[in-house]
Amino acid sequence: MRARAHQHEQTLGRERLAVELARRHYLDDESMSDLATVFGISRSTVSRLIALAHERHWVRITIVDPHHHETESARYLRERFDLHSVVAVAQGATDDVVDAVGRRAAEFLLATIEDHQTVGVAWGTTTRAVAAWLRPTDRVGCTVVQLNGAGSPEDLAVDYSMHILGQFSSAWNATVVYFPVPAFFDSAGTRTALWKERSIRRVLRAQRSCDVAVFSVGSTNAQPPSRVYAAGYLSTVERRQLQADGAVGDIATHFYDGTGRTDRIHMNARASGIRPDALRKIPERCCVAAGVGKTEALAGALRGGYVTTLIADSALIDSAAAACRAD
Q1: Taking the CB of residue 142, how many other CB atoms lie within 10 A of it?
Q2: Which member of 68, 117, 157, 308 has the lowest number of beta carbons within 10 Å of its beta carbon?
Q3: CA dist., res. 325 & res. 305, Å (int)
Q4: What is the pTM of this model?
Q5: pLDDT at 55 exceeding the cut of 90
């Protein structure tokens, strides 16, 4: 009985601290780094407690953008999946949809990332478009972490992933933590053995300490096709197995079905990307997606709870909202 009372008291203390941190961060404009110093806790603990305040609906933030009107579909997705925000990007007649969405996501990130934050990046076609629009800021002490391996049976693809991470790093003058492993291992046993190495454990710890994750959703139906499907990462046999397992998309090379579940998909045992359960623990998970070909993949990611902020073109948001309404 006494132990239960003590546990209850600890929980109350944590909740009160979460509220106090959120109040001082948002109302008094104190940075997370300053709060960490004042309260004698780590920067990541401050971030997670503020995220707890968001999850418990103790924080309400309203941003009025005179150039942005929330569409009905965006509002539906935000409310149904309790997202922080949904940005529907209107595509002009001559715009490249991936480029337009990438530009808007870059603006969001440049305004969002704070000093001493750790940002996880899953490389791909869409995050490459985001990286191209990033501009240097005066942030200090930031870290950029690679969330998924880049090697394939045909090409190590090191240059591709390094270029994207380098652009993210340059925007915040950040240290980069690379992940020098294949996108998919030939066997699950190889991954298990490699995950015991100290150098790899260091990367995995960095991934788990992320304050923000930036990723897209992969799909076989997307145009242009997601890189993991178009650059020799998957054999014909593997594609057939994914289809048989009901995979509709992937985040950082971990596949999921239409409900967001990952446990029934055999390929995931050989994937190098951040595990879905670890991804969900990152406070801000920014999904950037473009093209209606990603409708199934985006709907599955939303149902799986992998997204907190969504930035996508209006047509995809409309299509995903319609798919989710049909549940």
Answers
A1: 22
A2: 68
A3: 16
A4: 0.79
A5: no
Cα(first)–Cα(last) distance of the chain, in Å? Answer: 44
The SS3 call for residue 254 is strand
Structural domains for the chain: 2-55 (1.10.10), 72-325 (3.40.50.1360)
Bridge-based pairing of strands 254-256 and 249-251 is antiparallel
**Which of 16-30, 46-60, 120-134 shows the highest mean pLDDT?**
120-134
Sign of CA dihedral 93, 95, 96, 99: negative
Instruction: Supply 265's token pair.
Output: 């998909």
Residues 6+ positions from 160 with CB-CB distance below 8 Å: 123, 128, 150, 227
Reported as a single tens digit per residue, the pLDDT across 179-233 is 989 889 999 999 999 999 999 999 999 999 999 999 999 987 776 667 777 667 7
Rounded alpha-carbon distances, angstroms, from residue 134 to 146, 158, 165, 171: 17, 21, 11, 6
Query: For 57-70, how does the pLDDT look when each residue is reduced to its tens digit (9 = 90+)?
Result: 788 665 555 445 68
Phi-psi region of 152 (alpha: psi -120 to 50; beta: other; left: phi over 0): beta
Which has the closest alpha carbon to 288: 93, 64, 125?
125
